[in-house]
Amino acid sequence: xxxxxxxxxxxxxxxxILLIIGFIASRRIKTYRDFIIAAGQFNLFILMGTVIATxxxxxxxxxxxxxxxxxxxxxxxxxxAAVPRFLLWALLLAIPIWMAxxxxxxxxxxxxxxxxxxxxxxxxxxxxxxGLIAGQLVATARILSVMTGLSFEIALLIxxxxxxxxxxxxxxxxxxxxxxxxxxxxxxxxxxxxxxxHATIGLDTIKTALPPEHWSTLGLDGALFFITLFILWCADLxxxxxxxxxxxxxxxxxVFMAPLFGAISYLxxxxxGGLLGSFAAYKLPxxxxxxxxxxxxxxxxxxxxxxxxxxxxxxxxTMSSADTYLNAPASLIVHDLIRPFKPTLTDRQLLxxxxxxxxxxxxxxxxSGLWIRAIIPVxxxxxxxxxxxxxxxxxxxxxxxxxxxxxxxGMLVGGIVGGGLRFAxxxxxxxxxxxxxxxxxxxxxxxxxxxxLITFSLARPKPGATSIETASGTKLSESVQRIIRVMPW
Amino acid sequence: xxxxxxxxxxxxxxxxxxxxxMLVISLIMLIGFVTMVYIHPGLDLLFLIIMIAxxxxxxxxxxxxxxxx
Lengths: 489, 69
Known about the structure:
The complex is a heterodimer of chains A (489) and B (69). By secondary structure, chain A is mainly alpha-helical.
């Protein structure tokens, strides 16, 4: 594969800047808690940057225009389904969780339900995160490979090493500060490409040149696709990095406004996804890998230096997601699965342990990436497990009667059904088509979890929420009492 | 500051209002994408500005009404 020699220096300079930011951020890490949630330090700009940059990963910037390469509105529905998901985060979930400031998603579930449910959500998170990290590393490697001409394996190794170094060194601070840096590059880069494509090719040209089916609004299929994608986007909510970002906000308004701007960013992503995919379909017909549409379009349309900056932006979005996905499960494993069994560990030991786990997770993900190689199948597949966690997570905030038993069994059975059906499709055990590959695993996973949660909660009202309220005092920790006060009951 | 936060709670009706906001914004957005977008760049820009304004102002209205300053 031919290297893009004009672009390489820009990419190298970008990585050097990234490492410098990570190093500066690491000097602010004094305690283990700093490594995890930055202890309520983020202002709106930083939080907004980290929330958006994390979500604008390989799937959004490469996968969505890839969909738009074939059908413009498929891309629009995919990304726009994230808008109501961000609104759910902002309007209902952000404030009550921020008031309680849990360190991890497990802590939130333990406080709201019980220890068993806490461990269940931790396991679902770690499972999902390994797939997410691997997917992002593969996406990074694909971009690096196209831009530099390096082999996929070498590109994956380089990308993984950079992510390991600054995530392990700087924790959540490094992740958030580089996220902001990358967030700016992403917006400037992608919007520049859209403007240049508008100016040099034009909307009228692609409207007439591309076949009518490219511009089909997809009818019922499109509506069902939007609904399923909304569920899958929501499956990304009961994740540790969401809790980390909520708890890291400096003020109430900050924690509310950041996901609101996230919703706005995905409105723009939906538009750009369909647009850039369509421009690529016109300019570069017959691409074997539609996911490479944006990269190849930038090489075709932009001057080398500008294409280099966009290349850095594209690498940035995937690595930004990778570093977040790496930091979050590391803190989850150390804080929730190791610390309870080793309460004597000092703060310094916990911090070192978190860094060690970060490195181990990255290596596992790297090996998985080298083995699986496909971005989107891995990412989506693992989300089908966490679809079952949506009902207990949302209910934890606004339904007083939601019981621990209902939450646990809902997550267990719903997760097995959702994830199981998806894997059954991958192993060709179910019929081909979108019904069995995309829709049914999501719908059944969330439906079963909801039914079990409601049935168990109504049939056997659990000690959890009710007895906590009546016990008032000696048996309850201060943090639990604080959560109860912020619930909308 | 701390004591002010402790007194905060999310009213029950906020849940219904939030669900309604999500539904209505999704419908307006989808209808807008299908009817207004990819026709003319100016129209695309107009649609995006209108939607951004709707999301921002509805969001801040909700914040002021149910969460407070």
